[in-house]
Write a structure and sequence with these properties.
This protein is α/β, with parallel strands linked by helices. The chain is built from twelve helices and eleven strands. The protein is globular and about 55 Å long. About 50% of the residues are buried.
Amino acid sequence: MQNLATPYLLFIGDAQDPLSIKMARSAADWSPEKCIGEYRLPGCTVTTGCPEMSIDEAAQQGAKSFVLGFANSGGHLDPNWLPMIQHALRAGLDVISGLHDRLTDYPELVATAAEFGRQLHDIRHPSGRLRTGKGYQREGKRLLTVGTDCSVGKMYTSLSIWRALQQRQVPSTFRATGQSGILVAGEGIAVDCVVADFIAGAVEQLAPANTAEHWDIIEGQGSLYHPAFAGVSLGLLHGAQADALIVCHALGRSSMRAIDNRPLPSLEETIALNEQMARMTNPAAKVIGVAVNTSSVSETEAQAYCAEVEQRLGLPCVDPIRHGTERLVDVLLTVA
């Protein structure tokens, strides 16, 4: 369990791409009770929906942590943010980062944190000892969300399903595998910072054997079709030993995230490849439904698209935000 002090002040800098602040948005959407406000800079055109406030205002209102709420390509810490991070430390706030660059690699941040008795949390970097995966059969049931691309809604789908299971009083746990999920859940392992040989083993540790009726809802990462992230996605598939898979897709996206002129795979291709790879460690693994981010189209168009997918694939297809995940959960609970 990560010892992350709340409430949070979400720092989103001068971001202009909604997807670039997914860490801050995730916290605001899924744990709003932990978020006191957002700190924006001139030029910022996106928002988490939280009240806008300065570092000093947030500290006066009881904020305990300054969250670097953005996720840029490569996960680098912009040197321009260092004075603001030091300001937050001097104001009495811990600092939480989900970037690949470690806060603790900056001597000036380490010195300021020590001077003011504050903590630096690099939640993307696993601190415990990991082991290699074995693929041995284990008790309990597991669902893994997979995708046609990265940033298509795997975490939101996973959390939506987990909350629906909680409402039905089905024993279940959300297993965070990325920095945004960890910020929401307070624990987890960011698998994209795990040494490649240990990814499958890390997921086995994250979602261990459990009672027969218990469901682990494992947050997916990347896509088998994305050249940058396929290795992480494959390790997740093998370590999850999932009984059920849900394919996540973003409607209207013309190219893979951060790659020009690379179309997304079809749903049929995505289902076939993910089932093939998942069955290496669980021969019974199967896709049970499709979750689509339809925010780029109208409700009428969204309904029509989901209906067409259902007819074509014979699987339930919903937008978790617009339509909820009850129909996916109905099918999930039929999995033996």
